Inverse folding.
């Protein structure tokens, strides 16, 4: 009884890994999609990841762990995170962001404070980002890099990216100064 053990690597993925190795590329690629919904006063959030290349089988990412990669509660708000899962887990990025939402901070400030804390406490930190929506419906995102992409839609399906606050925390690797606002 149970699931059959098998190798789920596709030939396409294996070919890409071989091609990267032949080109001398060892940097793992990854991508995460996070979603927060607020309807009739109720929050929901979800996270999906393709994970890091070259990781050992059985690795569990932040996307599967509440309070690491995501968290929500109707009385407070919701948070989803993206970036290097190991760093997000070590810094408990979603939990930190949610803590600040619980303290009454608006989503942009809660995300910025949490990213700053993780940025300053986790050694060898890679790219991380947090997106939050507070109970008032304010949206805020913060990242320690300039490639954090966010969009949103309202009940009438109008989409926008121009009223999201992007705050870059940290200054290493050419990252803009903290508190610099993008957009």
């Amino acid at each position: 009884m149970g699931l059959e053990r098998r190798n789920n690597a596709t030939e396409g993925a294996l070919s890409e890994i071989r091609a990267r190795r032949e080109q001398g590329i060892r940097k793992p690629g990854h991508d995460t999609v996070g979603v927060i919904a607020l309807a009739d006063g109720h929050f929901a959030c979800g996270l999906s990841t393709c994970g890091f290349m070259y990781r050992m089988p059985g690795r569990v990412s932040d996307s599967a762990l509440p309070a690491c990669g995501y968290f929500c509660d109707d009385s407070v708000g919701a948070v989803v995170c993206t970036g290097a899962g190991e760093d997000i887990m070590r810094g408990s990025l979603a939990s930190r962001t949610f803590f600040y939402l619980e303290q009454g901070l608006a989503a942009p400030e809660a995300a910025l404070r949490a990213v700053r804390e993780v940025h300053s406490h986790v050694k060898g930190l890679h790219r991380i980002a947090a997106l939050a929506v507070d109970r008032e419906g304010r949206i805020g995102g913060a990242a320690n890099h300039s490639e954090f992409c966010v969009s949103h839609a309202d009940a009438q399906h109008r989409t926008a990216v121009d009223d999201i606050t992007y705050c870059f925390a940290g200054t290493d690797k050419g990252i803009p100064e903290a508190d610099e606002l993008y957009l």
